[in-house]
Design a protein that fits this description.
By secondary structure, the protein is an all-alpha fold. The chain has a domain at 40-88. It is 68% helix and 0% strand. The chain is built from three helices and no strands. The protein has helices at 2-22, 42-59, 64-84. Helix 2 (42-59) packs antiparallel against helix 3. It is elongated and about 85 Å long. The N and C termini lie far apart (79 Å).
Length: 88
Amino acid sequence: MTLLVCSLLALGLAAWVILPPLVRLPETPYFTGKNEGHHFDPKVALLESIAELREDLTSGHLTPEEFDQLSLEAQRAYLTAKKGDPAP
């Protein structure tokens, strides 16, 4: 009796492991393209770059002179990009 129960359990376990890969489910595309609402905003990227420059300054990777030069360039680019956008 025990042998019969164990063999049925082993058969059930084997079927549970082997059959799912054999049963094909309908394939869904990996990329559906539903995230089209997100777009790249150069103003946000410039503000993030200024924040990263500030982090580099506090961590010692940049000297204050390098930070001033690079952040001034990024600030000018941000203001130019902002000036080109229509007001909301």
